[in-house]
Design brief:
The complex is a heterodimer. By secondary structure, chain A is mainly alpha-helical. Chain A has 8 helices and 4 strands, in the order H-E-E-H-H-H-H-H-H-E-E-H. In chain A, strand 3 and strand 4 form a beta hairpin. In chain A, helix 3 crosses helix 7 and helix 4 crosses helix 8. The longest helix of chain A is centred in the first third of the chain and has 18 residues. Chain A is elongated. Among the domains of chain B are: 147 residues, Cytochrome c-like domain (Cytochrome Bc1 Complex, Chain D, domain 2, Orthogonal Bundle); 83 residues, no CATH class. Chain B has 22 helices and no strands. Classes of the chains: A mainly alpha, B mainly alpha. At the A-B interface, helix 1, helix 4, helix 5 and helix 6 of A face helix 13 and helix 16 of B.
Chain lengths: 216, 429
Amino acid sequence: MLLRGKLTIIVAIFACSLYSCEPKGDYAGVEYAPNMYHSVAYDPYSQITDSTDAYYNSTPYNQYKGKRKINMLLPVEGTVPRQNFRSVTDTSEDVRDKGLFFYELHKDSIDLAARVLKNPIVLDSAGLILEDGKKLYLTYCQPCHGEKGVGDGKVGAMYKGVPNYTTGRYKTLNEGHIFHTITNGRNRMWGLKTTITPEDRWKIVHYVQKLQKGEG
Amino acid sequence: MSRFISTNILPFLFVFFFASATTFAQQDTTKQVDGTGQTDGAAQVGAAGGLSSDAAVIAKGLELFNGNCKQCHAVNEKVVGPALAKVYERRQLPWLINFIKYPQKTIESGDAYAAALYKEYKQFMPNHDFLKDDEIVSILSYVQEETKNPTKATTTGGGTTATAEESKESSSGLLVGIVIGLATLLVVVLAVLAMLGSVLTKYLAKEKVLSDADKAILNQRIEWGKILTSRGFVGIASFVFVALVLKVATEGLITIGVQQGYAPEQPIPFSHKLHAGQYEIDCKYCHNTVEKSKHASIPGPYVCMNCHNSIKTTSPNMQKIYEYVENDEPIQWVRVHNLPDLAYFNHAQHVKVAGLDCTNCHGDIKNMEVVQQVSLLTMGWCIDCHRKTEVNAKGNAYYDDLTEMHSKYSKQPMKVENIGGLECSKCHY
């Protein structure tokens, strides 16, 4: 009887201590076998820079602009992202250099872009390209430019100065102009070249051209 | 003479004001511009005479204004370009028409007023030469109407969510009310029963002749000590106690290694409720690699800046972002969803190929001020979904052969488990 009583008390204390294992707010909770939970190799978004931490995974030898312990490094100088190889302006064989060339277009060369850039992505009869373009448009452009391109997006209302694609001068802007604008921005708008791949940008161009005609 | 002075001094005044106060308050500019208009004298420079107050013209003007001007101009507020209130008093109609049609040309022609505008706003307004003269007049008529009788600014968002919350609160309040009502009813019934009992025993005590059974009732005493030490009571109490302890213990044990409910504070209190909820920005706008990579990327400051180059630029939290950029350091967001390293998970496979919505696993992010982990992220939770979910094979040639083979042997739809969704090595290797 006495033994059972003691046992109950021990179990009760154990249970109460377990109660505090629950994750809440800043506390992530207790981990079982944490050495299987934390990556030994570098893993995105899980760098631990505190060297007293048990799962410290930063090499002190990595340097980035004079700062130590940063696992993120810049690509080797002269590296070209693979995605750019697909951003070609015509379908001939030796397009690689041309494709790269247009990435050297300066931010201010919008008139040149409007003159020379041609959409390398040909619309298909099933409308899959346009469908992709629409999806991308709704993700990246709609917050400001609105669903139909009339500049009535909810963020646009705060940002101000969002044009209406379907009227006036904006109706007449060509594909090169639109592509260059998405890439580098224009007036108040900032460029999205770091976020959207060239291929996706050209798909958006197709959809924007549809919106210009008011066929949203 | 006075005319000469005003036209020559005006640009300098403009430049002076601009240089002295780079952070122009919106009202200040309007006042400033109003003042200059008045020095010129409305009768001399104003174009008000040529404008119409006809409702049809104003309606047409409103439509044209919304289509062509609203992006950069408001009537009573400085937006990208100047506030247009009383513009018809500041300049004459031919000047306005010419400027609206060819702003850059007018500025470069050496027109002092136009040049001053360019100096202040630092960008050319695009040509509007596609507008006819009478259309411009109707726009200006609308501006005149709006100057005199400004319409109230429309409130955006907020309202609907507030009412939803209120209704939620009121429904939970109703529930509490019902419980309290039932509890009081119970207390009243108990009190009535106790009173009845005492009244009846008092009545018995007054009686002279009592049977044995009645005497027994009268002499009844509740012996608490005996009850507490009785076998039955001890048995029930220890059973309840052990059951409770076991329940707490198992619940506690289950939470080990499960971070459901983890909601860490972030270095910058970014609100998903505001961005994804109120402003309806798509998740992919910021987490843009979710369809291409194993990871749904956490955006760098350049994504924030796409909007925050103009919105809330002076907020203290924006200052924190500027600091990170200036120091060339990554913002150290705290990772919320920590899938153990022993399991493999790929966002692209689930979002792009399977076409799953983010909310399937991440919950109602649109209403979270601070993001927290709502799903268990345990193996059982993964497998449960793999057993229930049909493969999104439509339009995906990769699955053609698999679908064909599956339909040969089974009439059931092809679930993830049928194509190896439960195999150990799919996720553990």
